[in-house]
Structure formats: structure tokens, C-alpha cells
From TrEMBL:
Domain of life, per lineage: Bacteria
Biological classification of the source: Bacteria, Pseudomonadati, Pseudomonadota, Gammaproteobacteria, Alteromonadales
Name of the molecule in the record: Orotidine 5'-phosphate decarboxylase
Source species of the chain: Pseudoalteromonas byunsanensis
Enzyme class, first EC level, given as a word: lyase
Keywords: Decarboxylase, Lyase, Pyrimidine biosynthesis
Reaction equation(s) it catalyzes: orotidine 5'-phosphate + H(+) = UMP + CO2
GO biological process, one term: 'de novo' UMP biosynthetic process
GO terms, molecular function: orotidine-5'-phosphate decarboxylase activity
Subunit structure: Homodimer.
Residues bound to substrate: 14, 36, 63-72, 123, 184, 193, 213-214
Function: Catalyzes the decarboxylation of orotidine 5'-monophosphate (OMP) to uridine 5'-monophosphate (UMP).
One Pfam family recorded for the sequence: OMPdecase
Amino acid sequence: MSQTDSKKVLIALDYDDKQAALTFVKQLSPSQCRLKVGKEMFTYYGPEFVKELVELGFDVFLDLKFHDIPNTVAKAVTAAAELGVWMVNVHASGGFEMMQKAKEALEKYGDNAPLLIAVTVLTSMDQGQLLRLGIEKTPQEQVVYLAKLAKEAGLDGVVCSAQEAQLLKSQLGGEFKLVTPGIRPAGSDAGDQKRIMTPQKAVQAGSDYLVIGRPITQAQDPVQTLKEINDSIA
Ligand SMILES: O=c1ccn([C@@H]2O[C@H](COP(=O)(O)O)[C@@H](O)[C@H]2O)c(=O)[nH]1
């Protein structure tokens, strides 16, 4: 994967119906986008569903946001690597040692190891919600703090909002991957997302990968919507 990876859109497959998800996926080509499987579909349909997507030729981001003791997380990311996923993630707030052990566990996969990234501050959170957790930093300060910790632990990048992308690129360098949910094409509903940005502005700010769910999957014509988004960031 090069620094200027042109396949930037990761579609969040958040469906409660496997057939509906597969009907959509089968209209896509692995050259157009990557796919993200999160807690909903994994809980319903498990590793077999992930394997099906991998076998269809898609790069899959397994977004289970592991947050546990180092030994457990190291074993969980190993299980993800065995599924053949392209990217997997942990919560940075699980701590430095946990992130280090997870990265070490993937070393044996060499060039086939999935990218390992850390969630910083969920894009659904704003300053008020951080305060309620007892965190007095701004979301941006907390994201930078956790991203530096993740980089020091040897991770490949972080999940953050595109609003922090420019600052993170300037502080952590171009190679450290920024995966940004909370992407909303102009005029689309923010829903529960708080720190949002349009696809075009996110790419300009330095996002490497744009995680997009409902604006595509709930569009009247999801395939055409993906095409329009891809065209807007080409
Ligand atoms: O900080 C985060 C981390 C993960 N997500 C996930 O991304 C998608 C976003 O879906 P939309 O429908 O485009 O809002 C979803 O699967 C989340 O679990 C996130 O939103 N923010």
C-alpha cells in the first residue's frame, strides 16, 4: 500500500441483514472501495461473513475496537490476521502496553500482517462528552495525545475525525495513517456524529481513508452515491 493510496473510501457495512449487505456488495468492485465490518454484522454473522468478503476480493477493515488486557488483545488481533483482514483496530485508551503487545503479535505475519490502528476519540464525541468522562482536554488535544502514544507503540495509524487530520499529519508525519469516520457529504444528515467533515475537505485535510456508512448504504442509489463520492475526491 503506497502513501498515495487512491482507494480511500471504506464502506461501513452496518446491516442487520446479511443478504441485503451481500446484494449491495455484489454490485461493487474491489477496485472501487474497501469494506468495513463492525460490531453489528460481526455479532450477527461472525468470522464466516468476514471470510466471505475477503474471498470476494475485498480489503476488509475489521472494526471491533478491541479494548482489553494486553494478552487478550494480542490474541484477538492474531485471530483477525488469520481471517485475512487488511486492517484491524484497538482502543488507544487500552494503554501503551496493550498496543505494543498487539503489534508484536502481528509481526509473525510479515508483509501479510493487517494494518493495526488505534481509535483515539470517537467521532460521536464532543467536548461535553469528554468532560463527562473526566477528561478536561479538548477533543483535538486528546486525539493528538493518544495518537502520539499509538505511534510510539509502533501502530500504523489512528482512527480520528477529519477535523484533526491536518494537525496530526503535521505532528506525526505522512506515513502514519489517518482513518476518519464522521464523513458527511454536504447536506447529509449528521445523525449521531459530532465531529464531521465532507469527503472532499477530509482528503484535503490529510485523511488517508474515509469511513462512510449511512450516507452510502441508506442512499436511494448506494452504488451511484459511492461513484459520486469517489469522483469528488479523485
Ligand atoms: O470514531 C469512530 C470510530 C468508528 N466509527 C464507525 O464508523 C462508521 C460510521 O458510520 P456512519 O453511518 O457513516 O456514521 C460506523 O460503523 C461506526 O461504528 C465511527 O463512526 N466513529
